[in-house]
């Protein structure tokens, strides 16, 4: 078909944060993204970006069209603009849940259109260099091979409906980001993103719910200080400073995610009942068995993903770490119990991990691979009431988020999310700055680790 950087054009339909990030990166690399209305002033300084009034005009002239819209509306948007797709074009999507996206493409796109979808496994505020970028093609029959060292610069190649030329063309386009390319089927993508994101998001969303229910700003309280607490606070604020639909689509539209969020709520509830019941031995037996199941196969010989020096560096609090009392760390105990119950080995998905997942795995590993710290958390859970009300609200929150996801209720999800986000909003600017620094430092520390 002769697509080249000089003659081909790229269209982006949907200009939220990720769509804008793609347009900026691709125009910097010399590609010509074609976009839709009301962005002319914002992109006036970028001569390679042309803004069009609607998606039909983008679709009919673009050689590669990327839909960057919410998973919940992807079918409606593709139904509207898909029939205008240029003959022989390549179409992809950027949603976090591929089942509805790929179904929409198959249903509404002309038969002569090739499908090579993608998903950047990071938010628009994270530098994409070195981060995983998943590329997805149809149909689901495939052969795969690994090219290179999987621990450094992995590229998993999968042959699908797309021609070699189309796959190479998309490869060239996406190479502008400097990301690590991973090739999967849609089904594989949804299972892995559920494993690496669904429960992670549920845990941080529940923390925000619990702090808001108790009318707390945790960085103002001396018992939320230092180390692990810094990660909990910064990442919770980072999530709530984003848009609600970023998390709702993945949770509600991905069947694997629903099951995992339900299990996380069950794990939180079961462990909390053991805590308030004073069942010390049963609590220790269950938690340590879960830890042995998740952190196995030589992981004890690996360096920790995170260290005291990194964890202590980024704090919104003026309190010193020495004033922080022991914490039951219910959120961390429950994540390992959840992984154990579902048979998930988190290290298996490091090749497709998000920055948030690496942080969450890092602090969880930090607790479970420190026997004294883990023992202290378990004894605190039984003997110390300092965090009991926080753990109660956290349990309520985990169950409420799970119910919201199970019912498939986007409006309830949005209402809960935005209400809590509004509570924390005054802290977002400072937290964003500190969170960006923390993310950059921790990613640099972990990017070479398995």
Write the SSE topology:
Layout: E1 10-13, H1 17-28, E2 33-36, E3 50-52, H2 55-61, E4 64-67, H3 74-81, E5 90-93, H4 98-108, E6 114-120, E7 132-137, E8 144-146, E9 156-158, H5 164-174, E10 180-184, H6 186-213, H7 228-240, H8 245-253, H9 255-276, H10 280-294, H11 308-313, H12 330-342, H13 355-368, H14 371-383, H15 388-406, H16 410-424, H17 428-446
Parallel strand pairs: 1-2, 1-4, 2-3, 4-5, 5-6, 7-10
Antiparallel strand pairs: 6-7, 8-9
Helix pairs in contact: 3-4, 6-7, 6-9, 6-15, 6-16, 7-17, 8-9, 9-12, 9-15, 10-12
Radius of gyration, in angstroms, nearest whole number: 22 Å
Assign the structural class, choosing from mainly alpha, mainly beta, alpha/beta, alpha+beta, or little secondary structure. Answer: alpha/beta
Beta-strand residue percentage: 5-15%
- Cα(first) to Cα(last) distance is 40 Å
As a percent range, the share of helical residues equals: 40-55%
H/E series, N to C? EHEEHEHEHEEEEHEHHHHHHHHHHHH
Largest sheet: 8 strands, mixed
- Domains counted in the coordinates: how many? 2
Shape field: elongated
Strand order of the largest sheet: 3-2-1-4-5-6-7-10
* Total strand segments: 10
């Amino acid at each position: 078909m002769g697509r080249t950087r000089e003659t081909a054009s790229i269209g982006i339909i949907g200009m939220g944060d990720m769509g804008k990030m793609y347009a900026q990166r691709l125009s910097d690399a010399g590609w010509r993204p074609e976009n839709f209305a009301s962005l002319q002033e914002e992109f006036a300084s970028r001569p390679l970006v042309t803004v069009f009034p609607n998606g039909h005009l983008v679709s009919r002239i673009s050689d590669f069209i990327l839909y960057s819209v919410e998973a919940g509306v992807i079918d409606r948007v593709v139904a509207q603009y898909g029939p205008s797709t240029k003959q022989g074009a390549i179409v992809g999507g950027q949603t976090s849940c591929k089942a509805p996206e790929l179904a929409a493409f198959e249903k509404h796109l002309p038969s002569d259109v090739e499908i090579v979808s993608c998903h950047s496994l990071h938010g628009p505020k994270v530098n994409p260099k070195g981060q995983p970028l998943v590329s997805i093609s149809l149909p689901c029959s495939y052969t795969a091979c690994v090219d290179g060292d999987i621990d450094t610069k992995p590229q998993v190649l999968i042959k699908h409906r797309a021609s070699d030329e189309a796959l190479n063309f998309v490869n060239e386009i996406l190479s502008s980001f400097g990301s690590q390319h991973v090739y999967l089927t849609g089904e594989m993508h949804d299972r892995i993103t559920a494993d690496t994101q669904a429960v992670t998001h549920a845990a941080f969303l529940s923390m925000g719910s619990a702090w808001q229910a108790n009318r707390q700003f945790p960085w103002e309280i001396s018992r939320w200080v230092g180390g692990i607490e810094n990660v909990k606070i910064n990442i919770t604020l980072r999530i709530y400073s984003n848009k609600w639909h970023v998390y709702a689509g993945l949770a509600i539209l991905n069947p694997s995610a629903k099951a995992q969020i339900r299990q996380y709520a069950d794990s939180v509830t079961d462990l909390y009942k053991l805590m308030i019941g004073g069942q010390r031995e049963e609590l220790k037996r269950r938690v340590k068995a879960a830890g042995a199941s998740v952190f196995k196969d030589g992981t004890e010989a690996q360096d920790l993903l995170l260290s005291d020096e990194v964890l202590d560096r980024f704090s919104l609090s003026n309190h010193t770490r020495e004033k922080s009392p022991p914490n039951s760390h219910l959120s961390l105990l429950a994540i390992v119990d959840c992984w154990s119950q579902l048979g998930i080995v988190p290290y298996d998905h490091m090749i497709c991990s998000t920055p948030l997942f690496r942080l969450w795995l890092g602090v969880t590993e930090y607790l479970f691979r420190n026997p004294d710290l883990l023992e202290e958390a378990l004894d605190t859970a039984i003997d110390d009431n300092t965090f009991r009300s926080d753990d109660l609200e956290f349990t309520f929150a985990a169950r409420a988020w799970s119910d919201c996801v199970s019912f498939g209720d986007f409006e309830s999800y949005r209402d809960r999310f935005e209400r809590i986000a509004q509570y924390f909003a005054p802290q977002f600017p400072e937290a964003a700055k500190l969170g960006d620094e923390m993310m950059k430092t921790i990613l640099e520390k972990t990017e070479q680790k398995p």
